[in-house]
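Per-residue structure
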Amino acid sequence: MSPSLRILRPVAQFVVERVPALRPFASRSRPNSLRAPIDPDGIEASVTDSLRRLRTDYIDVLAIHDPTPAEATDDRIYSALERLKQKGLIRTISLAGSPESIIAGLGSGNVPDFAQFPNTPFANAITGLRALPWPRKPVFITHGAFGSSALNRMRALRATRDPALTALAEKFALPPNHQEETALLRFAFSANPDGLVLASMFSPGHLHANIAAAAASPDPTFAGELVKLLASTEDTHA
């Protein structure tokens, strides 16, 4: 184990004790072997080259993409990004990765302007992250509701006319057509009503559905209801 991760372990244990819902994420800390480590000394040159290719003077949001927990605590990376902000080359900093890396960043005091992470009905990470003692709370950017197995689970529940799903559909007036997709979109916006939600789209129909979901006022109770529904049926429909 690296020195950075040895330092991180007590921090992770503390936040998990404070917010038990984050236990599944803290237990999955692992390095990403699919890319080269982030080099703090190469960040400015990379950004300068990107600006040249983009033919622009600055980047609105620069994300530290998929960092390991150790990288999320690396002061050298944040110092390099802060220098870019001071020079006007970037406007804001985002930490885009796993919840455990965002926990790590918080524990080290390196709080980004935006925190982007997957949030699904099976692992409603935003509830735990929102409860942490942020010195300065970032804007949460969530995604991944359709990337989980929730869609298949709900289709299975509907096929068997599960009474819990029927009750949920009636309570929240879910349309009979595309009911599962509508529910997951509502979950995404309901779970993160004051942040940003990323949703994929592959057709004009997807675009219109996403716009309609974004325009509607999110029901603050819907996300919790869907999480409970899927949790209660996990064993019987696994």
Remarks:
- The first strand starts at residue 59 and ends at 65.
